[in-house]
């Protein structure tokens, strides 16, 4: 089998990271493992393993004839049999299917706003879905939605997974006092609700002013990110809340942190939580999407309702005041993530599904 992971960009987002992770994990088990970025390159390009072939299309328009022909030639040249399309790249995959009917299309649904599916636009997706051989959904809610709204007969829930690198890049040095750092791995998007997090941090920092909050993720330089910075200034937290943009050394950053937090309004199955877990961080997160699956039952108290800064602050305080409790919770989550979200288990499931196609 020769499988191409198709993704719009290689910026450091969850879907993008999963596309690269899958190509890397499958590279030793397939005859050919490939990554193709259609629109934009990014930090994750450096994470692609040497035995994974890479193509960049530099697509400029919705229907970009040059990009379409370039991908068509590449698929023929490399004798690719399966396109595994992630998120919005499904349209390009469908065009390839029209040009080469023998291709099998797997579409991977990473939709982060799974709490607001009633508002999801899907007319084009529904049309294209008749050409899919398989749909993979990152949580059971998305699986049910695909079965009810799309035209593909085979829909399967496949959890995300995170990979622990043996050697980590060490570039980013977190500010603040070691042992007193809170980390949020999330691009600056409204769905991630940084306002909720910053308001919660304001509450806890009145009791623990030595703690700092570190936000790592892409800044889109838009109205939302501007409003986040304004709130930090308003609350006079500039010396305790720090922004780093996208960083290539996530694992190294996690090693410097003491609590992982995610304050989203909506999620699919966030990779950030799995990465916190592998780094043995204790976590506080909002109870949205499939976040609860990352927490063993003994840690469910650290799941709070979205948009409730006071509740978020209360659970953060439980961890901030007790180092030994932080270590215990971190280890419990680590063991749970290792057993439930192993890359090996997902690889084996994927290989089996590809073979059946």
Automatic annotation (TrEMBL):
Give residue ranges for domain Glycosyl transferase family: 180-331
Short name of one Pfam family: Glyco_transf_4
* Keyword Transferase in record: yes
Tell whether Membrane is among the UniProt keywords.
no
Query: What range(s) does the Glycosyltransferase subfamily 4-like N-terminal domain occupy?
Result: 13-160
Sample GO molecular function, one term = glycosyltransferase activity
Q: Which UniProt keywords apply?
A: Transferase
Identify the Gene3D superfamilies for this entry. Answer: Glycogen Phosphorylase B
Report the protein name in the record.
Glycosyltransferase
Organism field:
Bizionia argentinensis JUB59
